[in-house]
Amino acid sequence: MTITTARPGARNLITDVPGLRVGQAADVSARTGVTVVLPDERAVAACDVRGGGPGTRETDALDPHNLVDAIDAVVLSGGSVYGLAAADGVAAWLGAQGRGYGLVAGDPAVPPSPVVPAAILFDLANGGDKAWGEDPPYRRLGRAAAVAAAEVFDLGTAGAGYGAMAGQLKGGTGSASVVTAEGVTVGAVVAVNAFGSVVAPGGRTFWAAPFEQDGEFGGLGAAGLAAGPDDWGLAKADPKARAHTTIACVATDAILTPAQARRVAVMAQDGLARAIRPVHAPFDGDVVFALSTGRRPLGERPDFQIARLGALAADVLARAVARGVHAATPWPDAAVRCWRDLS
After folding, report:
1. Please, which pLDDT band fits residue 1 given cuts at 50, 70 and 90?
2. For the segment 71-114, what is each residue's pLDDT rounded down to a tens digit?
3. Which region, left, alpha or beta, applies to residue 19 given φ > 0 means left and ψ of -120 to 50 means alpha?
4. What is the mean pLDDT of the chain?
5. Could you give the dihedral angle defined by the CA atoms of residues 279, 284, 285 and 287, in that order, rounded to the nearest 10 degrees?
6. Which uninterrupted H or E stretch holds 266?
7. What share of the chain is helix, strand, coil (3-state, %, to 5)?
8. Model pTM above 0.85
9. Please, which residues have CB within 8 angstroms of residue 188's CB and are 6 or more apart in sequence?
10. What are the φ and ψ backbone dihedral angles of 51, each rounded to 5 degrees?
11. Distance between CA 252 and CA 185 in Å, rounded?
């Protein structure tokens, strides 16, 4: 079977995948935010966790041998453990609209149970106002992000990546897509809050440069990619700063089973390894979700097609990481180093 050329989708966002919207919300004073991936209909999903310090919700439900075989939304949030409450706001909003898993179908006295897996990153030490006492903003932010879901959304200092750092540079929310010649779409959205560096030592070249499409994150090429065995460049300099994490969701319109989606999530993790050095450290909580909106047949030789989708997802995720940092801007009234400041 010949693999034909694939190109970015019309928006170069995960929302190029038919049946998906993304909503975002941020609290500027707290320097934190939430990103919600919202399928039009319940979607098959899976999850792969590689970081040594993850924070997640409902990931066990995604195991292929468990009862639930589809989700209603995926939430990516700042706020460490507090950020898991963002999924509460999304679930309440979905349930009020009658969306979710229903064990007692047709009984108006029994509300549905929206399945909303979530992952969080650590942005508590970024200087924002975290004096929220017993009322963290995440439930409110989750609902606001869900309500705002649309086909176009902001990159950089937005959503779950609002408060993020990428090593010594400002991190952010990134997204990218690819459409094969046969019309299958693969996309990714990511909140980059990595311990490692997204650029090679001594310059501005993104580690993801070999996978760049149409100059989407600077068009510098791959000539600057070089590093010594223990040279991490702009990785986090303070060894005491031990809480980071990159969280992401990849998606396709190809019809997948839960087990197939799980393999795509596993393969997509390689996109983080292509874009961040080092990655999956003991104090990263790196998590990748994969979901299928089920609009197109997988095609002949399904095992080969899963391998292809996983490879495309890894490439798209690497590009999304670079796009998120490339688009990042400083917080208001803050002196934080961004990619655009490098020379």
Report:
1. very low
2. 999 999 999 999 999 999 999 999 999 999 886 666 778 889 99
3. left
4. 94
5. -10
6. helix 258-275
7. 25, 25, 50
8. yes
9. 14, 174, 175, 176, 177, 248, 249, 250, 251, 268, 271, 313, 316, 317, 319, 320
10. -70, 155
11. 5
